[in-house]
Amino acid sequence: MSDSSTDNEASLHQYQDIQYSLKQSNRKTTSLFIERDGSVTVRAPLPYDMAKIESIIEQKRSWIYRNLAEWEDLNRVQVHREFVNGEGFLYLGRNYRLQLVDEQDEALVLKNGRFLLRRDHVDSGMEIFKNFYRTKGLDRINQRLTHFAPKMGVTFGSVRVMELQHRWASCTSKGDLNFHWRCLMAPLAVLDYIIIHELAHRLYRNHDAKFWDAVDKVLPDYQRHVSWLRHNGAGMGL
Ligand SMILES: [Zn+2]
Asked: Which stretches make up the YgjP-like metallopeptidase domain (predicted)?
């Protein structure tokens, strides 16, 4: 940390578990906001009053959590799963052990509480699992969208399950919805939250109070799921 930053360059800071970049403001007020990429920025006048900045972060803590949850860096913790007997793989919030098998029609099936992967497909295990999440995910997500959309009075366009950069899901201005295949590793209730969150964007583009009210109407305990994602999201990977 330096007290000689007189230009507009941002410096990176950490307050407890919240990382933020600090930029000089020409106004007298200190403000905190979340950038489009999900990073937290504080603008404050010089000289920086760190105590004041930190108390603002403290006041806004739950608001920050809510907003960061969506962008939680999926790659913060590199999960590395191996395609060997006994390795655990998540599906809808449960951990299933992998078993390699010699004979089986499909490359991968979930059966009797185990993921069965054909031994001659081990080298492409990553792609096969992603494909499993994508195809199973699309069915599941479509079902839930069809259930929740009318309750919320919204429509939606095309639905895709894919690899997304820094988000669990996204909603285009035309109403097309994209979901990360990793969403399928979350418990159903959390998956529902992700789906409802995107549908609420059909009503409000930004995460303002009206947006969260719309989520709250269909899912009064949504905060629990936001926090689940925050704490477990990084571990959801292959
Ligand atoms: Zn959102």
From this structure: 28-231
